[in-house]
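Help wanted!
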Amino acid sequence: MKKFLALFLALVMTLALVACGGNNAAPAETAPAETPAAQSGDSAAAETPAAPEASKLKVGVVLVGDENEGYTFAHIDGIRKAAAAVGLADSDIVWFYNIPESEECYDKCIECVEQGCTLVITNSYGHQSYCQQAADENPEVQFIAMTGDTAMKSGLANFHNAFNMTFESRYVSGIVAGMKLKEMMDAGLVTDPHIGYVGAFPYAEVVSGYTGFFLGIKSIVPEAHMDVQYTNSWFNIQDEGKAAEALMALGCCIIGQHADSTGAPKAVQTAKDNGQAVYSVGYNIDMLAAAPTAALTSSTNDWSVFYTETFQTLLDGGTLPTDWAKGYEAGAVGITPLGPEVAEGTAEAVKVAEDAIKAGTLHVFDTKTFTVGGAEVTSALTFDSDGDWTNDTNEGIVDGYYHESEYISAPSFSLRIDGITELN
Amino acid sequence: MAKAAHTTREPVILMSKRGELLPPWKSWGIRVIGFLLSLVVSGIVIMMVSGLNPAAVFATMLDGAVGTTKRSWVTVRDAMTLLCIAVGLAPAFKMRFWNIGAEGQILVGAIASAACMIYLKNLPTLLLIPVMICASLIAGGIWGFFPGLFKARWNTNETLFTLMMNYIAIQLTSFFVALWENPFGSNSVGVINSQNKQGWLPNLLQEGYNKDFGWNVIIVLTVTLIMYLYMNHSKHGYEISVIGDSENTARYAGIRVNRAYVRTIVFSGAICGLAGFVAVSGASHTISTSTAGGRGFTAIIVAWLAQFNSVVMIVFSFLLVFLQKGAQAIASTYNLSQEVSEMITGIILFFLLGSEFFVNYTVHFRGKKVAK
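Answered by r_m:
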């Protein structure tokens, strides 16, 4: 063994020496070293003449996942589209992938600043406190914690939150699910309108989403009821698959999700192939590849709407809003193409709902459509960061509906309404 | 004939352990050559897999680790944490007590520090920081005490014992993360005391926080110096090296081996616990199961490379952190996956560890006279 090791080492060293000889010519053709100065020089040179002011915007992006994860992919896609729309060069964007929700996020935010970024974006909720700390220490740089909720209270002028009004598209995807549910009940395939939902974490973002989804279903099948199973992770293929299986075992015939993998749709497709009457409603991405016949649709975000607006604002020298939230009206949310087995008339029902939401005549959290503890709700906390049961912002329910995402961008609807059971 | 051939047959390559230690300039020369060769080989690998100019890639590495004041401080900060762990491991390893449990000792030290930050935030900083230091030392010491006691009493296998203590510490950390999570339901503690910075190590050279990490340097270098003196100029240190060479000799010489085991591993665990304090109070200001982040294992490499000499460990912990930061810079600058940068780190480590072989062994080729 020792002999082998010696032989191997000797071989490696010999090879290295040989390679060293061949490598002598290399420094002659060496490009200038990549220093920050050289980088900014490069980017200035790469600027198109049409947008000379673009050099004053350099974007750092700190992402919780990479292209293989639907939620992060949607952000990458949105940023790329926005960059193309405002004429931002590739060299003006610094990417950090797979950054956990830990101090590493802070380090990466600081690294973005070190690389000369004037705007730093983090895309996960758990990144927020690290992003805020970096914002606190670098007042000359703009920071956006996507999906976050502390910007308003932070008192920092350079720290922002943003989120799409995803509950709107969840409501619409609920209509697709409701139509299918009704069809199955009419055909006698299903007697109990039992819905399952694979949720990530038990906080407002998820609660708001599944309530929107459920209310969409209820608008078609009023007697529907739903169970929610949490996975305590944003992305875990196995756990999401298992949660879906557990829900189907309870008799759920439609599985919605607020988790980022294809685990649940795949599990539903397998069950469907085994003869069970079950369907899946996904999130972020079209699930038809993962579940060709079981997928009905997915609610999605088009983040390019937000990113384009943000980049353009900064290029024009404007200031960013502390909270940004837009939905159907701005084209920031939507649903993916309908699957092959959706009920007849689904497309028309979707159109009606979308138009009503855009026109402002349909409010997802209309207090007439749900009850809590058997009673209609007249008052609700919008956002209560310190847990003292008083609103940080305004009263949530005005004019007969809950004003989701209007005061702060992050979803804040966290009432547990009748008809929904959290299993864990 | 056949017999004659057999007796005169020489191996192609003959290795033998060096009779006497090499003079320092020679052994360090070998290490430097190993390091330079590793750069050449990784340069070739970079060219082959990415088509990038190796010189530019190395420049990026340098820039990523020490390119700006802030980056240099971050490199210093991480090197100091790693150094603290390695220094903590040194006495245990020198004694041939395989303490694989640094991860766990760091985590319990970190838990103790974070607990002080959360529950004792009304104490004045001048009092709070020493309390945190003591708490983390005690916590780490306790985590080392049990494997030490079991080894001394029942001769249990310390490798497995300390390793399993890691898993307990990780679960304990998960529990406290769930207990302290902020905001509720996020499964993360977030930045602790971000408003008033209670329990944060302040800057040494200027006002504020997170601009320099001078206190980390002072704390860790003090520990390093103490450890150097302890190992080289104290009776305990001498006992440790005797036990490390031969337990029976130590016993024959009248050293109370069991007592030395427990004492040393408690000391070792306490320093690793202190590293948890440095990581929480001096760097991350939060706690998660990734607070130790594998550094308890990386530090073993540092300790071995430095031959358990705490002063030499300074060099190696800087080198390892430098490599890590440089590799990350390569990955982000050239949009390569993190694996490519880990390959480079791997190649360099391979050569560094390989050069230890040439420090300890000589190699003779057939046909050359073996010099006497």
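OP: Thanks! One thing I noticed: The longest helix of chain B spans residues 125-154.
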